[in-house]
């Protein structure tokens, strides 16, 4: 009997990708605001597109998970701005004007 560890390794990698994306969103919003959402979009779509062409099921799944996590991060980036406004996360004092309510 041969054991297949790819599923467990994929689960660990998924956990790590999500674990990296969470602070990435927080730090991105703190230093740059929501403007880099386009980078999340381009990289996320690129990873998802690349997943379609990779022959290995493991690497294709890993690219898909990374791409989907970055795409999900776009929404989280805008939500993070709201969490900062509510005082749940620290505000970057150099970007204080970004949190002032303008006609939205």
TrEMBL record:
Keyword Transmembrane: yes
Organism domain of life: Bacteria
Pfam families, A to Z: DUF4491 (PF14898)
Membrane-spanning intervals of the chain: 6-25, 37-54, 60-78
Keywords: Membrane, Transmembrane, Transmembrane helix
Name of this protein: DUF4491 domain-containing protein
